[in-house]
Amino acid sequence: MSKLADWLKTPGVLAAAPASVFLLVGFAGPLLMVLGYSFMPPRTFALNNVPTLENYYSVFSDSYYISFLWSLFLAALTVILLFPICYPIAYGMAKLFGKWANLVTALIAVPLLISENIRLFGWVLVLLKNGILDGTLQSVLGISASGFLYTVPSILLGLVYVYLPFMLFPMVIGISMIPDPLKEAAFDLGASRWQVFREIELPLAMPGILIGAILTFILAMGSLAESKILGGQAVVMIADDIESAFTFAQNWPKGSVLSVLLIALSGLIVFVLFRRIDLDQIIGRR
Amino acid sequence: MKTAGSSPTTRKFIWIWTSAVILFLYIPMFAVILASFSTQRYFRFPIQSFTTKWYTKTLDSLSVRDLLWTSISVAALVTFFSVLLAFFGALAFARYDWKGRKLYQRLVLLPIFFPQAVLGLSLLLWFSALGITTSWQTAVFAHMIWIVPIVILIMSIQAYSFDPALEEAAFDLGATRWQVLREVTLPILAPGVVSGSIFAFLLSWGNFPLSLFSTGADQTVPEWLYAKMVSGYTPMVPTLGSLTMSSAALMLLLAYLVWLATGGRKRRAQAFTSSED
Question: Could you give the ipTM of this predicted complex?
Fold first, then answer.
C-alpha cells in the first residue's frame, strides 16, 4: 500500500495525472459507453436495458460490409500511393536539403493548419464542370474534362492530398535514422542502388515509415469529409454509415456497433505494429 | 567514389519532385482565393470579371461575425487549457523516468491515431448521456481530446533535450519546487510552449469533424462553410474561406517574425559569451 503511495508521489506520476485524468474522462469514457450501447436493443437511448447481440447480427447480415470494404480499399490504396510520392521528398528532407529542409517542412506543414473543408472545396472548384481544370482544357485544347468530380478517383485524390503530411513527416524521421557510413560501406562492397535501398535504407527507416503508414491508414479509414465533399454519392464509406445511424436514423446501438467494429479493426492494426516501435528512439532520437 | 548514393541526377529529380508536390499542395488554396474574386454567382473558369464585393458583403454580415466570434472563443480556450495540461503531460512523457511511462506514452497518443468523426460521435453520445446540452463550450472539450495529445507530442520534442542536472542544481541551491518550475523548467520549455500554442489554436480554428457533432446549436466557421458547400452555395464560401486562410497565414508569419527576433537575440548572446571564453 505504501509502495503505491510512494509511486503516486513521484514527479512523473504527478505530471502525468492531469492529462491522464482528462483523457480518461473524455476519451476512454465515451468509447466504453459506445461499447455499452452496442449491446443495447435497437433504437434505445439508455444503458439500463438487457444486453443483446441483436445489433451485431443485424449489422453482419446487412450490406454494411460493402462500406467497410470501400473504406479498407481506399485507405490501403491511399497508403500505397503515398509511399512512392513521399519517399523521395522524405529522403531529400533527411539527407539532401540541408538548411532548406526547414523551409520545405514549413511549406508542407502549413496546409495542415488550414481547415480540411476549405482545401477539399478548393479541389471541387478545380474539378467542377466549367471549373479550373475543365475551363482551362476547354479554352486551350478545346476538350472537356467535366467528369472528374464525384467519382472514386476524386475521393482518392482528396485522401492522398489530405493525408500526405501524415505519411511524410514520420518517414523523414525514419530515414534520418539511417547512418550514412553504413550505406557507403555497402556501396564500397559492390552493392547496387536497389540492393542498398532494400537491404539497408528500408529496414532502418521502417519504424518511421510504419508510423506514417498506420496514421494515414487509420485516419483514411475513418474519414468523412473527403467522400462527402469530393465523392458526392459515388460511394458510401463507413464513417458515413456511422454518422447516419447516429443522426438521421436515431439508432444509437447500430451506430455503436459500426463504431466498435471500425475501432476494433483500427486498434488491432495499431496494437500489432506499435508493439515493435520504441517511441523514445523516434521522437527523442536517443 | 559514390557518396551515400545520391548522384546529381537523383538530386535534381528529388528537388523537382519536391517542388511539384508542394505546388500540388497549394493548388486548392489558390482555387479558393481565385473564386472569391469572381463576380459570378456560380463559379466558372476562366473568370470573366473580378470584384471585391463578396468581401464587403461577408465582413458586413452579422451571422459571419457570430461565426468568427464562436470560432475564436473555442480556439482561444482550447489553446489555454491544452497548453496547461500538455506542459505537465510532456514532462511526464519525456523528462521524468517513472514506472508506467511507456504505457502512458502509448495511451496519450491513441486519440491522435483515431478517426475524428467517430470520436466526435462518441462524445455526442457521452454528453447526452451525462445530460449536458452541447454548445460551443462542449466543443472546447471535444477539440481538447484531440489537441492535448498533439501539443504533448510537440512539447515533448523540447522536453527530450532537457538536462535534468539543471533542475537538480536548482534544488541543491535551495529552490522550492515552484521556483524550479518557474525559473528553470518553464524557460527551457518556452519554445515548445509557443509552438504548441500556435498548433493548438490553428488546429482548433480549422477543425471540422469534431465541431460537427459537438457544437449543438452553435456553429463554427468550418461547419458553416461545410453546410453551405453541401446546400445553399453562396460566393461567401470561398470568401470566408480565403479570410480564414489568410488569418492563419498572418498568425504563422507573426509567430515566425517573433521567433526570428528572439532567436536572433539568443544567437547574438551565445556569440558574445563564447567570445568571452
Answer: 0.86
The three-state secondary structure class of A92 is helix
Q: Is residue A196 within 8 angstroms of chain B, CB to CB?
A: yes
Beta bridge partners of B20: none
Interface contact flag, A122 B25, Cβ < 8 Å: no
Q: Do A279 and B124 touch (CB under 8 A)?
A: no
The separation between CA B138 and the C-alpha centre of its own chain, rounded to angstroms, equals 19
Please tell me the distance in Å from B147's CA to the nearest CA on chain A. 11
pTM (global) more than 0.95: no
Asked if the C-beta of B91 comes within 8 angstroms of chain A's C-beta atoms, the answer is yes
Determine contact: A107 vs chain B, CB below 8 A: yes
Taking chain A (286 residues) in runs of 10, the rounded mean pLDDT of each run is 79 89 94 92 83 87 89 94 96 90 90 90 90 85 81 94 93 87 87 86 85 90 89 87 89 92 84 69 58
Q: Is B121 on the interface with A (CB under 8 A)?
A: yes
Q: What is the CA radius of gyration of chain A?
A: 23
Please identify which residue in the block is written with the cell numbers 479493426: A265
- Nearest CB to B126 within list A33, A126, A139: A33
List, in order, residues 6 or more apart from B124 with CB less than 8 Å away. Answer: A246, B134, B213, B214
Helices B221-230/A116-127 angle, 10° precision: 30
pLDDT of residue A142: 80
- The contacts of residue B3 (CB under 8 Å, 6+ apart) are A184
> Which domains are assigned to chain B?
8-51 (no CATH), 60-268 (1.10.3720.10)
Q: What's the alpha-carbon Rg for chain B, to the nearest Å?
A: 23
The CATH H-level (homologous superfamily) assignment of domain A63-283 is: MetI-like (1.10.3720.10)
